[in-house]
Amino acid sequence: MSGYLDMELLRFTTAGSVDDGKSTLIGRLLYDSKSIFEDQMEAVKAASERLGNEEVNLALLTDGLRAEREQGITIDVAYRYFATPKRKFIIADTPGHIEYTRNMVTGASTADAAIILVDARNGIIEQTKRHSYVASLLRLDYVILAVNKMDLVDFSEEVFNNIKTEYTAIAEKLNLKNVIYIPISARDGDNVVNASDKTPWYEGQPLLSLLESLPVKESIERLKARFPVQYVIRPQSDEFHDYRAYAGRLASGRVKVGDKVTILSSYTESTIKAIDEADKSLEEAYAPQSVAIRLSDNVDVSRGDMIVKSDELPRVDANISLLVCWLNHRPLSIGAKYIIRHTTDEVFGFIKDVYYKVNINELENVIGDKLVKMNDIAHIKIKTSKPLKHDLYAENRVTGSLVIIDEATFETVGAGMIVDSLEEQTYVI
Length: 429
What we know:
Blueprint: H1 2-5, E1 9-15, H2 22-32, H3 38-50, H4 66-71, E2 78-83, E3 88-93, H5 101-108, E4 113-119, H6 126-137, E5 142-148, H7 157-173, E6 179-183, H8 207-213, E7 227-228, E8 231-233, E9 245-249, E10 254-256, E11 260-264, E12 268-277, E13 280-282, E14 284-286, E15 290-295, E16 306-309, E17 315-326, E18 337-342, E19 345-359, E20 364-367, E21 377-390, E22 401-406, E23 412-419
Parallel strand pairs: 1-3, 1-4, 4-5, 5-6
Antiparallel strand pairs: 2-3, 7-16, 8-9, 9-15, 10-14, 11-12, 11-16, 12-13, 12-15, 17-21, 17-23, 18-19, 18-22, 19-20, 19-21, 22-23
Helix pairs in contact: 5-6
Protein backbone atom coordinates (compact mmCIF):
# COMPACT_ATOMS: atom_id res chain seq x y z
CA MET A 1 0.00 0.00 0.00
CA SER A 2 2.79 2.40 0.87
CA GLY A 3 4.29 1.82 -2.56
CA TYR A 4 1.07 3.01 -4.19
CA LEU A 5 0.92 6.09 -1.97
CA ASP A 6 4.51 6.98 -2.85
CA MET A 7 3.95 6.71 -6.61
CA GLU A 8 4.40 9.84 -8.68
CA LEU A 9 1.18 11.55 -9.75
CA LEU A 10 0.53 13.09 -13.17
CA ARG A 11 -2.50 15.29 -13.68
CA PHE A 12 -3.63 15.84 -17.23
CA THR A 13 -6.62 17.35 -18.96
CA THR A 14 -8.36 16.20 -22.11
CA ALA A 15 -10.07 18.49 -24.59
CA GLY A 16 -11.58 18.12 -28.01
CA SER A 17 -14.47 19.10 -30.22
CA VAL A 18 -17.76 17.24 -30.35
CA ASP A 19 -17.29 13.67 -31.63
CA ASP A 20 -13.50 13.87 -31.62
CA GLY A 21 -13.53 10.72 -29.49
CA LYS A 22 -12.51 12.13 -26.11
CA SER A 23 -14.77 9.88 -24.04
CA THR A 24 -13.73 6.87 -26.11
CA LEU A 25 -10.05 7.68 -25.54
CA ILE A 26 -10.50 7.93 -21.78
CA GLY A 27 -12.54 4.73 -21.81
CA ARG A 28 -9.78 2.99 -23.76
CA LEU A 29 -7.13 4.16 -21.27
CA LEU A 30 -9.21 2.92 -18.34
CA TYR A 31 -10.04 -0.38 -20.03
CA ASP A 32 -6.63 -1.25 -21.43
CA SER A 33 -4.87 -0.25 -18.19
CA LYS A 34 -7.26 -2.57 -16.33
CA SER A 35 -8.57 0.31 -14.23
CA ILE A 36 -12.25 -0.64 -14.33
CA PHE A 37 -14.14 -3.32 -12.47
CA GLU A 38 -15.67 -6.33 -14.15
CA ASP A 39 -19.20 -5.26 -13.23
CA GLN A 40 -18.57 -1.84 -14.78
CA MET A 41 -17.49 -3.49 -18.01
CA GLU A 42 -20.56 -5.73 -17.99
CA ALA A 43 -22.77 -2.68 -17.56
CA VAL A 44 -21.05 -0.97 -20.50
CA LYS A 45 -21.51 -4.06 -22.68
CA ALA A 46 -25.22 -4.19 -21.78
CA ALA A 47 -25.67 -0.47 -22.45
CA SER A 48 -23.89 -0.82 -25.81
CA GLU A 49 -26.29 -3.59 -26.81
CA ARG A 50 -29.32 -1.53 -25.79
CA LEU A 51 -28.06 1.34 -27.93
CA GLY A 52 -27.66 -1.01 -30.91
CA ASN A 53 -23.85 -0.79 -31.02
CA GLU A 54 -22.21 -3.80 -32.59
CA GLU A 55 -19.05 -3.22 -30.56
CA VAL A 56 -18.54 -2.25 -26.92
CA ASN A 57 -18.82 1.54 -26.69
CA LEU A 58 -16.00 2.49 -24.34
CA ALA A 59 -17.23 6.09 -24.28
CA LEU A 60 -20.00 4.90 -21.96
CA LEU A 61 -17.40 4.36 -19.26
CA THR A 62 -17.12 8.11 -18.84
CA ASP A 63 -20.73 9.13 -19.41
CA GLY A 64 -21.60 9.78 -15.80
CA LEU A 65 -24.44 12.23 -16.28
CA ARG A 66 -27.85 11.38 -17.67
CA ALA A 67 -28.14 14.74 -19.43
CA GLU A 68 -24.76 14.11 -21.00
CA ARG A 69 -25.92 10.78 -22.39
CA GLU A 70 -29.24 12.13 -23.62
CA GLN A 71 -27.86 15.24 -25.29
CA GLY A 72 -24.60 13.76 -26.49
CA ILE A 73 -22.54 16.54 -24.95
CA THR A 74 -20.27 16.88 -21.95
CA ILE A 75 -21.61 19.52 -19.59
CA ASP A 76 -19.15 19.63 -16.71
CA VAL A 77 -15.63 18.77 -15.64
CA ALA A 78 -15.35 15.10 -14.70
CA TYR A 79 -12.32 13.80 -12.84
CA ARG A 80 -11.18 10.22 -13.49
CA TYR A 81 -8.56 8.32 -11.53
CA PHE A 82 -6.45 5.40 -12.62
CA ALA A 83 -3.01 3.94 -12.07
CA THR A 84 -0.44 1.75 -13.75
CA PRO A 85 2.51 0.03 -12.07
CA LYS A 86 4.59 3.12 -12.92
CA ARG A 87 2.41 6.10 -12.04
CA LYS A 88 -0.91 7.41 -10.72
CA PHE A 89 -3.09 9.63 -12.91
CA ILE A 90 -5.89 12.13 -12.50
CA ILE A 91 -7.74 13.02 -15.71
CA ALA A 92 -9.77 16.22 -15.95
CA ASP A 93 -12.29 15.51 -18.71
CA THR A 94 -13.42 18.94 -19.89
CA PRO A 95 -16.07 20.08 -22.39
CA GLY A 96 -15.07 21.25 -25.83
CA HIS A 97 -17.86 23.70 -26.59
CA ILE A 98 -17.10 27.43 -26.60
CA GLU A 99 -19.82 28.01 -23.97
CA TYR A 100 -17.80 25.86 -21.58
CA THR A 101 -14.46 27.63 -21.82
CA ARG A 102 -14.73 28.27 -18.08
CA ASN A 103 -14.91 24.53 -17.44
CA MET A 104 -11.76 23.87 -19.42
CA VAL A 105 -9.93 26.60 -17.52
CA THR A 106 -11.08 24.99 -14.26
CA GLY A 107 -10.07 21.49 -15.31
CA ALA A 108 -6.70 22.51 -16.72
CA SER A 109 -5.70 24.83 -13.87
CA THR A 110 -4.00 22.06 -11.87
CA ALA A 111 -2.83 19.93 -14.80
CA ASP A 112 0.72 19.10 -15.83
CA ALA A 113 -0.22 18.28 -19.41
CA ALA A 114 -3.09 18.55 -21.88
CA ILE A 115 -4.23 16.01 -24.45
CA ILE A 116 -5.95 17.86 -27.28
CA LEU A 117 -7.83 15.59 -29.67
CA VAL A 118 -8.13 16.34 -33.37
CA ASP A 119 -10.30 14.37 -35.77
CA ALA A 120 -7.95 13.24 -38.56
CA ARG A 121 -10.72 13.86 -41.11
CA ASN A 122 -11.33 17.47 -40.04
CA GLY A 123 -7.87 18.64 -39.02
CA ILE A 124 -7.31 21.81 -37.01
CA ILE A 125 -10.53 23.68 -36.25
CA GLU A 126 -11.43 26.77 -34.18
CA GLN A 127 -11.98 24.73 -31.05
CA THR A 128 -8.48 23.27 -31.37
CA LYS A 129 -7.11 26.82 -31.30
CA ARG A 130 -9.25 27.67 -28.26
CA HIS A 131 -8.06 24.63 -26.32
CA SER A 132 -4.48 25.42 -27.26
CA TYR A 133 -4.87 29.02 -26.12
CA VAL A 134 -6.11 27.85 -22.72
CA ALA A 135 -3.14 25.49 -22.45
CA SER A 136 -0.85 28.42 -23.23
CA LEU A 137 -2.70 30.72 -20.83
CA LEU A 138 -2.34 28.22 -17.98
CA ARG A 139 1.31 27.52 -18.79
CA LEU A 140 0.88 23.77 -19.11
CA ASP A 141 4.23 22.07 -19.46
CA TYR A 142 3.21 19.62 -22.18
CA VAL A 143 0.61 19.51 -24.93
CA ILE A 144 -0.08 16.17 -26.60
CA LEU A 145 -1.87 16.56 -29.92
CA ALA A 146 -3.63 13.23 -30.39
CA VAL A 147 -4.73 12.90 -34.00
CA ASN A 148 -7.65 10.51 -33.56
CA LYS A 149 -9.67 8.37 -35.97
CA MET A 150 -6.63 7.58 -38.06
CA ASP A 151 -8.44 4.38 -39.03
CA LEU A 152 -10.89 6.53 -41.02
CA VAL A 153 -8.08 8.02 -43.14
CA ASP A 154 -6.32 4.68 -43.72
CA PHE A 155 -3.60 5.61 -41.23
CA SER A 156 -2.23 8.10 -43.75
CA GLU A 157 1.16 9.51 -42.82
CA GLU A 158 0.51 12.46 -45.15
CA VAL A 159 -2.71 13.41 -43.33
CA PHE A 160 -0.93 13.19 -39.99
CA ASN A 161 2.04 15.28 -41.17
CA ASN A 162 -0.21 17.98 -42.67
CA ILE A 163 -2.02 18.36 -39.33
CA LYS A 164 1.31 18.39 -37.52
CA THR A 165 2.68 21.14 -39.78
CA GLU A 166 -0.43 23.31 -39.36
CA TYR A 167 -0.46 22.90 -35.59
CA THR A 168 3.25 23.61 -35.26
CA ALA A 169 2.61 27.15 -36.54
CA ILE A 170 -0.14 27.64 -33.94
CA ALA A 171 2.06 26.26 -31.16
CA GLU A 172 4.84 28.68 -32.06
CA LYS A 173 2.42 31.60 -32.04
CA LEU A 174 1.12 30.58 -28.61
CA ASN A 175 4.61 29.90 -27.25
CA LEU A 176 3.77 26.29 -26.40
CA LYS A 177 7.12 24.81 -25.41
CA ASN A 178 6.67 21.04 -25.51
CA VAL A 179 4.25 19.67 -28.11
CA ILE A 180 4.09 15.94 -28.86
CA TYR A 181 2.15 14.49 -31.79
CA ILE A 182 0.60 11.00 -31.74
CA PRO A 183 -1.55 9.28 -34.41
CA ILE A 184 -4.20 7.16 -32.67
CA SER A 185 -7.44 5.28 -33.05
CA ALA A 186 -9.17 5.48 -29.68
CA ARG A 187 -11.89 3.10 -30.80
CA ASP A 188 -9.52 0.32 -31.81
CA GLY A 189 -6.69 1.15 -29.41
CA ASP A 190 -3.98 1.94 -31.96
CA ASN A 191 -1.09 3.76 -30.23
CA VAL A 192 -3.15 4.32 -27.09
CA VAL A 193 -1.73 1.67 -24.76
CA ASN A 194 0.07 -0.49 -27.28
CA ALA A 195 2.07 0.49 -30.36
CA SER A 196 0.20 -0.07 -33.61
CA ASP A 197 1.57 -2.02 -36.55
CA LYS A 198 -0.65 0.14 -38.77
CA THR A 199 1.61 3.18 -38.30
CA PRO A 200 5.11 1.84 -39.05
CA TRP A 201 6.08 5.40 -39.97
CA TYR A 202 5.41 6.62 -36.39
CA GLU A 203 8.51 6.25 -34.23
CA GLY A 204 7.18 7.72 -30.98
CA GLN A 205 5.69 6.11 -27.89
CA PRO A 206 2.09 5.00 -27.45
CA LEU A 207 0.05 7.48 -25.43
CA LEU A 208 0.08 5.62 -22.11
CA SER A 209 3.84 5.02 -22.24
CA LEU A 210 4.29 8.73 -22.92
CA LEU A 211 2.09 9.67 -19.96
CA GLU A 212 4.08 7.30 -17.76
CA SER A 213 7.38 8.87 -18.77
CA LEU A 214 6.57 12.60 -18.99
CA PRO A 215 8.56 14.56 -16.43
CA VAL A 216 6.11 15.94 -13.90
CA LYS A 217 6.11 19.74 -13.93
CA GLU A 218 8.99 21.45 -12.17
CA SER A 219 8.34 20.37 -8.65
CA ILE A 220 6.68 23.06 -6.57
CA GLU A 221 9.11 22.17 -3.81
CA ARG A 222 11.90 23.66 -5.95
CA LEU A 223 10.20 27.04 -6.21
CA LYS A 224 10.61 29.88 -3.72
CA ALA A 225 9.15 29.10 -0.31
CA ARG A 226 5.62 30.40 0.25
CA PHE A 227 3.68 29.53 3.42
CA PRO A 228 0.23 31.18 3.58
CA VAL A 229 -0.98 31.05 7.18
CA GLN A 230 -4.36 29.39 7.63
CA TYR A 231 -4.65 29.22 11.39
CA VAL A 232 -2.85 30.37 14.54
CA ILE A 233 -2.55 27.55 17.10
CA ARG A 234 -2.62 28.72 20.72
CA PRO A 235 -3.74 25.90 23.06
CA GLN A 236 -5.57 27.11 26.17
CA SER A 237 -4.27 24.41 28.51
CA ASP A 238 -1.63 25.17 31.15
CA GLU A 239 0.54 22.36 29.82
CA PHE A 240 0.96 24.08 26.45
CA HIS A 241 0.57 27.73 27.48
CA ASP A 242 3.87 28.65 25.78
CA TYR A 243 2.99 26.87 22.52
CA ARG A 244 2.29 29.13 19.55
CA ALA A 245 2.41 27.88 15.97
CA TYR A 246 1.17 28.90 12.55
CA ALA A 247 -0.61 26.20 10.59
CA GLY A 248 -1.04 25.96 6.85
CA ARG A 249 0.06 24.20 3.73
CA LEU A 250 3.28 25.06 1.96
CA ALA A 251 2.20 26.47 -1.39
CA SER A 252 5.69 26.05 -2.80
CA GLY A 253 9.30 25.57 -1.84
CA ARG A 254 11.02 24.12 1.22
CA VAL A 255 11.60 25.43 4.73
CA LYS A 256 13.80 24.05 7.47
CA VAL A 257 14.57 24.74 11.08
CA GLY A 258 16.96 27.68 11.33
CA ASP A 259 15.73 29.47 8.19
CA LYS A 260 15.52 33.24 8.49
CA VAL A 261 12.01 34.24 7.47
CA THR A 262 9.91 37.36 6.91
CA ILE A 263 6.24 37.65 7.80
CA LEU A 264 4.22 39.59 5.26
CA SER A 265 2.65 42.08 5.11
CA SER A 266 4.28 43.41 8.32
CA TYR A 267 7.83 42.61 7.11
CA THR A 268 8.65 41.34 10.61
CA GLU A 269 11.68 39.03 10.62
CA SER A 270 12.26 35.90 12.69
CA THR A 271 13.75 32.41 12.50
CA ILE A 272 12.01 29.05 12.23
CA LYS A 273 12.41 27.36 15.62
CA ALA A 274 10.45 24.17 14.90
CA ILE A 275 8.23 22.50 12.31
CA ASP A 276 5.43 20.24 13.55
CA GLU A 277 3.46 17.70 11.56
CA ALA A 278 0.68 15.91 13.45
CA ASP A 279 2.42 14.29 16.45
CA LYS A 280 6.02 14.62 15.27
CA SER A 281 8.62 17.31 14.67
CA LEU A 282 10.42 17.79 11.36
CA GLU A 283 13.74 19.32 10.47
CA GLU A 284 12.45 20.27 7.02
CA ALA A 285 9.12 20.55 5.21
CA TYR A 286 8.35 20.93 1.53
CA ALA A 287 5.33 21.71 -0.64
CA PRO A 288 2.56 20.63 -0.51
CA GLN A 289 2.94 19.45 3.10
CA SER A 290 0.57 20.75 5.77
CA VAL A 291 2.55 21.70 8.85
CA ALA A 292 2.66 24.08 11.80
CA ILE A 293 5.62 26.44 11.98
CA ARG A 294 6.97 27.80 15.28
CA LEU A 295 9.11 30.94 15.28
CA SER A 296 11.88 32.06 17.61
CA ASP A 297 10.17 35.39 18.29
CA ASN A 298 6.74 36.21 19.61
CA VAL A 299 5.50 38.07 16.54
CA ASP A 300 2.07 39.12 15.37
CA VAL A 301 0.88 36.65 12.71
CA SER A 302 -2.71 36.00 11.60
CA ARG A 303 -4.64 34.18 8.90
CA GLY A 304 -3.87 35.60 5.46
CA ASP A 305 -0.29 36.47 6.34
CA MET A 306 2.50 34.73 4.48
CA ILE A 307 5.77 33.37 5.86
CA VAL A 308 8.60 33.46 3.31
CA LYS A 309 12.35 33.15 3.38
CA SER A 310 13.92 36.56 3.90
CA ASP A 311 15.99 36.28 0.72
CA GLU A 312 12.98 35.13 -1.39
CA LEU A 313 10.45 37.92 -1.03
CA PRO A 314 7.39 37.94 -3.31
CA ARG A 315 5.74 40.98 -4.82
CA VAL A 316 3.51 42.98 -2.49
CA ASP A 317 1.07 45.30 -4.24
CA ALA A 318 -2.55 46.41 -4.24
CA ASN A 319 -2.64 47.10 -7.98
CA ILE A 320 -2.79 43.77 -9.75
CA SER A 321 -2.79 43.03 -13.48
CA LEU A 322 -4.72 39.87 -14.40
CA LEU A 323 -5.74 37.65 -17.22
CA VAL A 324 -9.22 36.64 -16.09
CA CYS A 325 -11.65 33.99 -17.28
CA TRP A 326 -15.15 35.23 -16.45
CA LEU A 327 -17.27 32.44 -14.97
CA ASN A 328 -20.63 34.05 -14.28
CA HIS A 329 -23.70 34.87 -16.36
CA ARG A 330 -23.60 38.43 -15.01
CA PRO A 331 -20.95 40.41 -16.93
CA LEU A 332 -17.90 41.91 -15.26
CA SER A 333 -18.65 45.37 -13.89
CA ILE A 334 -15.89 48.00 -14.02
CA GLY A 335 -15.81 49.95 -10.77
CA ALA A 336 -17.85 47.36 -8.87
CA LYS A 337 -16.60 45.94 -5.56
CA TYR A 338 -15.80 42.23 -5.36
CA ILE A 339 -14.24 39.87 -2.84
CA ILE A 340 -10.74 38.81 -3.89
CA ARG A 341 -9.55 35.45 -2.54
CA HIS A 342 -5.83 34.76 -2.86
CA THR A 343 -4.22 31.79 -1.06
CA THR A 344 -5.55 32.15 2.53
CA ASP A 345 -6.10 35.89 2.20
CA GLU A 346 -9.45 37.49 1.47
CA VAL A 347 -9.82 41.19 0.73
CA PHE A 348 -12.16 43.55 -1.04
CA GLY A 349 -11.21 44.93 -4.41
CA PHE A 350 -12.66 46.65 -7.43
CA ILE A 351 -12.02 46.32 -11.13
CA LYS A 352 -10.26 49.42 -12.44
CA ASP A 353 -10.20 48.71 -16.16
CA VAL A 354 -10.40 46.18 -18.97
CA TYR A 355 -7.39 46.49 -21.25
CA TYR A 356 -8.55 44.01 -23.89
CA LYS A 357 -10.56 40.89 -24.49
CA VAL A 358 -9.18 37.83 -26.25
CA ASN A 359 -10.78 36.47 -29.41
CA ILE A 360 -9.62 32.91 -28.86
CA ASN A 361 -10.80 31.56 -32.20
CA GLU A 362 -8.82 34.14 -34.16
CA LEU A 363 -6.03 34.46 -31.56
CA GLU A 364 -6.44 38.22 -31.51
CA ASN A 365 -6.60 40.85 -28.77
CA VAL A 366 -9.71 43.02 -29.04
CA ILE A 367 -8.88 46.44 -27.61
CA GLY A 368 -11.76 48.73 -26.68
CA ASP A 369 -14.32 46.00 -26.02
CA LYS A 370 -14.90 46.19 -22.26
CA LEU A 371 -17.99 43.98 -22.04
CA VAL A 372 -16.65 40.80 -20.41
CA LYS A 373 -19.29 38.06 -20.34
CA MET A 374 -19.31 34.44 -19.21
CA ASN A 375 -16.51 32.39 -20.84
CA ASP A 376 -14.71 35.53 -22.02
CA ILE A 377 -11.00 35.89 -21.29
CA ALA A 378 -9.74 39.42 -20.73
CA HIS A 379 -6.76 41.36 -19.44
CA ILE A 380 -7.92 43.52 -16.54
CA LYS A 381 -6.55 45.57 -13.68
CA ILE A 382 -7.86 45.40 -10.11
CA LYS A 383 -7.10 47.35 -6.95
CA THR A 384 -7.39 45.60 -3.62
CA SER A 385 -8.16 47.07 -0.20
CA LYS A 386 -4.77 45.90 1.08
CA PRO A 387 -1.69 44.66 -0.76
CA LEU A 388 -1.54 41.03 -1.86
CA LYS A 389 1.59 38.93 -1.33
CA HIS A 390 1.90 37.35 -4.74
CA ASP A 391 4.06 36.07 -7.58
CA LEU A 392 3.44 36.11 -11.30
CA TYR A 393 1.45 33.12 -12.52
CA ALA A 394 4.32 32.27 -14.85
CA GLU A 395 6.56 31.87 -11.79
CA ASN A 396 4.18 30.23 -9.32
CA ARG A 397 0.74 28.90 -10.25
CA VAL A 398 -0.46 28.90 -6.62
CA THR A 399 0.54 32.38 -5.46
CA GLY A 400 0.06 33.73 -8.99
CA SER A 401 -3.66 32.98 -9.15
CA LEU A 402 -6.77 34.27 -7.43
CA VAL A 403 -10.54 34.11 -7.63
CA ILE A 404 -13.07 36.93 -7.79
CA ILE A 405 -16.27 36.54 -5.75
CA ASP A 406 -19.53 38.47 -5.94
CA GLU A 407 -19.94 40.16 -2.55
CA ALA A 408 -23.75 39.91 -2.67
CA THR A 409 -24.23 36.29 -3.77
CA PHE A 410 -20.81 34.85 -2.81
CA GLU A 411 -20.64 33.20 -6.23
CA THR A 412 -17.21 32.75 -7.77
CA VAL A 413 -17.41 34.96 -10.85
CA GLY A 414 -13.83 35.07 -12.14
CA ALA A 415 -10.57 33.12 -12.11
CA GLY A 416 -7.48 35.27 -12.52
CA MET A 417 -3.84 34.69 -13.42
CA ILE A 418 -1.50 37.46 -12.29
CA VAL A 419 0.65 38.90 -15.07
CA ASP A 420 3.33 41.55 -15.14
CA SER A 421 2.29 44.21 -17.59
CA LEU A 422 0.09 44.85 -20.59
CA GLU A 423 3.05 45.00 -22.95
CA GLU A 424 4.59 41.71 -21.86
CA GLN A 425 1.30 39.85 -21.96
CA THR A 426 0.73 40.24 -25.71
CA TYR A 427 3.12 37.35 -26.42
CA VAL A 428 0.33 34.84 -26.93
CA ILE A 429 -1.16 36.55 -29.95
